[in-house]
Amino acid sequence: MPLNEAPPARSDHSHTQAPADPWSTTGERSTDFGSEPTAAQRRRHLATRALNCVLALLALLALLPVFVLLAVLIRLTSRGPVFYLQERVGLDRRGPGPDAHNHRRVQDLGGRVFTIYKFRTMHVDAERHSGAVWAAQADPRVTPVGRVLRQYRLDELPQLLNVLKGEMNIVGPRPERPTIFAELRGHIAEYPLRQRAKPGITGLAQINHHYDRSLDDVRTKVSYDLEYIRRQSLREDLRIMLKTIPVVLLRRGGW
């Protein structure tokens, strides 16, 4: 969900029983609160981490001129900082189930909160009066340069730094703000299960669906995220990365 989106008001009948956890066989399952990982799981984790670090570092070096150009354009065309920082909900390292280890947090935010980096695409204090709302194709709060960045998803490039820091992968479910996460998990029972994988810059949902315009769009993306988690592998990640290229170049689903 883009930065300027929020779900509709929570219904009194929105809470449903949590579904079965699909996190039983694949992905980056945490071992903080469960059995020790197998040798195969450790190798897969190390290979995934190495691939993400190498690709993120190479991309940052190759795109450095683009970063400089975009920074200059943002500063020259609108008041405010070049980068936009925001808290997002990341990987949930707690083991599934009601054991005592799952209740160490005073407040359950759904995962480890981290700071995400983006190129600023909106005017400063754009949500002061409206608050977070669903994305629109002609949002007056988006700057002219920001509109182009969103169409080509260039505003997400600084998240390569999040990948190097280990907070994100290149491929994974898109992270959401804690307040919006809290609302969405009240409407969609499966929503917290997305946090069983490290969040990503792109994902199966992003190459198959457009920006969210309604709660139904969020449900569709959740189904894609859970499908990705069930079949997560290096091959799947590389396939999604390659399919992201035409999505970006052809501006599919970007506003």
Please describe what this structure looks like.
This protein is mainly alpha-helical and 255 residues long. It has one domain (39-249). Helix content is 39%, strand content 8%. The chain is built from 8 helices and 4 strands; from the N terminus they run H-H-E-E-H-H-E-H-E-H-H-H. The strands form 2 sheets. The chain has a two-stranded antiparallel sheet. It has a two-stranded parallel sheet with strand order 3-4. Strand 3 (169-171), helix 5 and strand 4 (200-202) form a beta-alpha-beta unit. The longest helix has 24 residues, at 39-62. It is globular and about 55 Å long.
Q: In total, how many domains does the architecture comprise?
A: 1
Structural class: mainly alpha
Helix content: 25-40%
Main β-sheet: number of strands, strand sense, barrel status? 2 strands, antiparallel
Over all CA atoms, what is the radius of gyration? 18 Å
As a percent range, the share of strand residues is: 5-15%
| Order of helical and strand elements | HHEEHHEHEHHH
Sheet with most strands: strand arrangement: 1-2
Explain the layout of strands and helices:
Layout: H1 39-62, H2 64-77, E1 83-89, E2 113-119, H3 144-151, H4 159-164, E3 169-171, H5 178-187, E4 200-202, H6 204-208, H7 215-230, H8 234-249
Parallel strand pairs: 3-4
Antiparallel strand pairs: 1-2
Brief sketch in words of this structure:
This protein starts with 38 loop residues before the first helix and ends in a 6-residue tail after the last helix.
